[in-house]
Amino acid sequence: MLELMIKDWWNNNFKLPPQIVMDVDRIETCKEMVRHGLGYGIIPGICLQPKDQFYTYNLKINDEDLIRKTWMIYSEDSLESPVVNAFVQYLTAHIHNGEVSKNAVDTFTQAP
C-alpha cells in the first residue's frame, strides 16, 4: 500500500520513472545510506526523530499531504499491561474524526 502511494506521488510529479539503484527493506539502513550521502529515501515521517537532522519534505498530491491510514489493533487481554493500557488510553484521548490529532503524532515522532 505504501509503495503504491509513493509510485502514485512520483507519477503525479515527474514524467520519467525513478532511477532506483538500490531498494532496501529496513528504514534504519535507508537512513544511514542517506546520512552518508548515498541518495535519498522516502519513508514515513513517524520513522524520523529530531536527532536524525535530515532535510524533509512532505509528499503532496494535488496540494494535499500524502497521508496513510494506520491502524492500532490489540486484544482485550493486552489492556491488563499498564504500558499497553496507557498507550491505548493516550491515543483514544487524541482521536478526532477517526484520526489521531496532529498533537498526538508530534508527541510520538519526537519521543526518544
Instruction: Report on the biggest sheet.
Output: 2 strands, antiparallel
What number is the mean pLDDT?
A: 81
Q: SSE order in H/E notation?
A: HHEEHEEH
* Poorly predicted parts: 103-112
Question: Got a strand count?
Answer: 4
Structural class: mainly alpha
Radius of gyration: 17 Å
Helicity range: 25-40%
Strand content of the residues, in percent? 5-15%
Tell me the span between the first and last alpha carbons. 27 Å
Task: Tell me about this structure.
- Helix content is 37%, strand content 7%.
- The protein has 4 helices and 4 strands; from the N terminus they run ααββαββα.
- It has helices at 2-13, 27-35, 82-93, 102-109, and strands at 60-61, 64-65, 95-96, 99-100.
- The strands form 2 sheets. Strands 1-2 form a two-stranded antiparallel ribbon. The protein has a two-stranded antiparallel sheet with strand order 3-4.
- The chain is extended.
- The two termini are 27 Å apart.
Keywords:
single chain; 112 residues; mainly alpha; two-stranded antiparallel sheet; two-stranded antiparallel ribbon
Concise structural overview:
The chain is mainly alpha-helical and 112 residues long.
Summarize the SSE layout with pairings.
Layout lengths: L1 H12 L13 H9 L24 E2 L2 E2 L16 H12 L1 E2 L2 E2 L1 H8 L3
Antiparallel strand pairs: 1-2, 3-4
